[in-house]
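Schema walkthrough. Field components (list of strings):
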Amino acid sequence: MDTKPIYLDHAATTPVAPEVIQAMLPFLEGAYGNASSLHSFGQEAKAAVEAARTRIASFMGARPEEIVFTSGGTESDNFIIKGIALSRRDRGNHLITSSIEHHAVLETCDFLRKQGVSVTLLPVDSNGLVDPDDVRKAITDKTILISIMHGNNEIGTIEPIAEIGSIAREHGVAFHTDAVQTFGHIPIDVDELKVDFLSASAHKLHGPKGVGLAYIRKGMKITPLLHGGDQEKRRRASTLNVPGIVGFGRAVELADASMHTESSRQSALRDRLIKGLLSSIGDTRLNGHPVRRLPNNANLSFAFVEGEGLLLSLDMEGIAVSTGSACTSSSLEPSHVLKAIGVPVELAHGSLRFTLGRDTTREDIDRVLQVMPGIVHRLRAMSPLVRKGAVS
Amino acid sequence: MIQNGPYNEKVMDHFRNPRNVGVLENPDGVGTAGNPVCGDIMEISIQVEDDVIKDVRFRTFGCGAAIATSSMVTELVKNKTIDEALAVSNRAVAKALGGLPPIKMHCSVLAEEALRSAIDDFRRRQGKP
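Field assembly_structure (string):
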């Protein structure tokens, strides 16, 4: 491969920023103290953790003590949903969520359903939007938590979180949003969004893997997932991941500095990619909302071909993307998100997700636009679903 | 840096350069297996002379493994007698490809089914059971 690899799978994970690595290194080398220790080694680590906490809290309009560091988005979702189900079981046993949530939310709700909690899965429209009115109608006197994601990881649709937050407040129901895909990409203010709980993960914003956060609004009681030591004000036991948290703090600092220019730059590249693919390849559709979508997400379905074949063909060109096709999942089921927005199953199998990042250039996008028509044409030429003359 | 993903070089070779792609003009038998809802559909057409598969073509909607197994099964049965072709199992197809990831073994089953379906069609047209 003489051309440089093009990574367009930033929703899966992002490269760790060099500045983040530099910030972390001292805490992997000399400054190895346990942040719970009273001696100078421990205090040095603790100071670094608290500096990161303060930085991250201010980025999202929260107070430092409202941030609990976790191992990532999945743990935060599990912690918040299970923690609320347990701590509020005297007040009710009903959860409301949407059918397009990440598996970390859906599987957690399914686990709780098997324990006797009732779960309402709200539908979405063909663009992937939850209707706030549906949320209002689903609330009962037993509802203890509403959990709706901020930005969808597959189709990029951004949900009306503030509107849903208002409804949750009117009814006195706690409200959680999984902001794993939006945190560090679009502005987040927990008061404006009217959320009580929020999940985020460092590696989606050029931070390290294995660290994330749960935002817990002051006054909200929650049962811990991990019991043990006194860390994180007894909300999450376990020795703090000091290098990871420091890296997360630095990643947020970098995101804060570049987010506004990056979101408009990436949106323009995203639209160039979407328009280019729709105009150069027939029988292609955009999945997700045309406007209310993550700045870096383009998800399209190419009729008559299967996503894994497209993915492998792009990989051979040095271009890394992802697919909602069944063939790449162990369940052999196509994406639940594409299904929920009503994409016909055959088209769901032929979907690709391109997610851009800070390192994505216009040349990268033009290279995708240059190779994609040939790749789709080659696979369509061997597809029995193509009727004679249906595709040029 | 660039790996072949989940597949070995032989599978990737058949994905990149599939053998016998297309549809025969006047086939003696055509068979399909799978369905688009499951994400895999294979179509195999055969031309038979004196009980020997003289020519064979395939078209496949499916993942890399589905395309590679279709390609390989056409290679394995070309110029074979009908009985020899019927003896080609899905395991033989997978083995000829140097192995498939466990989750992709169903693709080789589909290749075997599409071939058998084409042979059944041939026999029906011959008036044989």
